[in-house]
Specification:
about 325 residues, alpha/beta, TIM Barrel, Alpha-Beta Plaits, 8-stranded parallel barrel, two-stranded antiparallel sheet, about 35% helix, globular
C-alpha cells in the first residue's frame, strides 16, 4: 500500500484511509467485535490510517482492532467542541477511549464558514496548546465547504484539512467540485495535509462506482482518501482498487449479495425535496422526518443529490 506524508505535518499515511463512521451506531451498527474484525483486515493489508470522530461512537471498535493487531496506526479524530472545557473533554475521551497518550491528528469537526471557525477558536487554541505539549501531533479541520478550505489555507496553525471531494460534488455546501478542487490545490501547495472524504458521496454514487473511484484516485493534490468500509470483503475490494489490482470476482459477488440500504440521518429537516425527487414514490415525510419504503427503493441515489442537508446515505 502506497504511503505519503500529509503535507508539512510529516505524518506518513496510506493512500487508503479507513473511514470508521459506517461501522458505528450512526449507520451499520456493527458490534465492537464485528467492527474490529473489519478494521483488523485493513490493518493487515497495509492500511495504516483510520478516520474517526467523537460523534461516530467507534472508539471501542478501533481500540479492539489495535489490541488484536498489536501496532497502532495513524488515527485522526474530531469534535464539535467550541470551548476550552469542551475541547479538553473531547481530547481526553479519545485518549482514554483508544488507550493512547498521543493523538496523531485532532480536528474541529464539520466547520461551515469563517464565522464557525472564529466561534471554535477557543477549542482550536486548546488543541494547539496540547500540540505544543506533545499530546497531539497535528491539528486540523474537517469541512464540506469551500470557504473553510480557503480560510484554513491562510492559517499557518492548521496542519490538516479533511474536505469532501467526489465526482459530482454532492455534499459540498457552497459551490461546485471544480471550485473545491481549486481551493484544495492552493491548500496543498501551502503544505497542508489533505485527506478527502466521501468519494462515493455517502453511497449516493454507488451506481457509478468505477468512474467515481477513478475520479477520487486521480486527484494529485490529495494525500489520502477516507473510504467507509463495513465488511472484510469491502476492505479487500478497496485495497485491491487502491493498489491497482484486479478485484476478485468472488469478492464482488459477495458484496452484491449483502446489499445496501438507504439511511436517513437524524438531522433531516423534513423539507420534502427528496420526496419530490424520488420517481419510485419510496419516500415520504412522517413525524417530522423523511422515511423510506425499502420495498420500493431502487438505491439510485437521486434523493441524496436533492437533499440540502446531505442527510441521505446509502450504506
Amino acid at each position: 500500500m502506497k504511503k505519503l506524508k500529509l503535507g508539512n505535518s510529516g505524518i506518513e499515511v496510506s493512500r487508503l484511509c479507513f473511514g470508521a463512521l459506517i461501522i458505528g451506531p450512526l449507520q451499520s451498527s456493527l458490534s465492537v467485535e464485528e467492527g474490529a474484525e473489519v478494521i483488523l483486515e485493513a490493518l493487515k493489508l497495509g492500511v495504516n490510517f483510520i478516520d474517526s470522530a467523537e460523534l461516530y461512537g467507534t472508539y471501542p471498535h478501533i481500540r479492539k482492532a489495535i489490541s488484536l493487531f498489536g501496532d497502532k496506526p495513524v488515527i485522526a479524530s474530531k469534535s464539535y467542541a467550541y470551548s476550552k472545557d469542551g475541547a479538553k473533554a473531547s481530547l481526553e475521551l479519545v485518549r482514554k477511549g483508544l488507550n493512547i497518550d498521543v493523538v496523531d491528528i485532532f480536528m474541529l469537526h464539520e466547520q461551515e464558514s469563517r464565522l464557525t471557525l472564529r466561534g471554535h477558536r477557543d477549542a482550536l487554541e486548546y488543541y494547539l496548546g496540547e500540540k505544543q505539549k506533545g499530546r497531539i501531533k497535528a491539528v486540523g479541520v474537517s469541512t464540506h465547504n469551500i470557504e473553510v478550505v480557503e480560510a484554513c489555507s491562510e492559517m499557518p496553525e492548521i496542519d490538516i484539512i479533511h474536505p469532501i471531494i467526489n465526482r459530482t460534488g454532492i455534499g459540498i455546501g457552497d459551490g461546485s467540485i471544480e471550485s473545491m478542487l481549486s481551493a484544495v490545490r492552493k491548500a496543498y501547495d501551502k503544505g497542508k495535509g489533505i485527506y478527502s472524504m466521501k468519494p462515493l458521496g455517502g453511497g449516493n454514487l454507488l451506481s457509478t462506482f468505477p468512474e467515481s473511484m477513478e475520479f477520487a484516485l486521480s486527484q494529485p493534490f490529495v494525500h489520502s482518501i477516507a473510504v467507509g468500509m463495513q465488511s472484510v470483503e469491502e476492505v479487500i475490494m478497496n485495497v485491491n482498487l487502491f493498489e491497482g489490482k484486479d478485484i476478485p470476482q468472488e469478492i464482488l459477488s459477495s458484496i452484491k449479495r449483502k446489499g445496501k440500504k438507504l439511511h436517513i440521518d437524524y438531522w433531516c429537516s423534513a423539507c420534502g425535496k427528496c420526496v419530490s425527487r424520488c420517481g419510485q414514490n419510496a419516500l415520504s415525510v412522517i413525524d417530522g422526518k423523511a422515511r423510506v419504503d425499502m420495498e420500493k427503493c431502487l438505491l439510485c441515489g437521486y434523493c441524496g443529490s436533492a437533499c440540502p442537508q446531505f442527510a441521505i446515505k446509502i450504506c
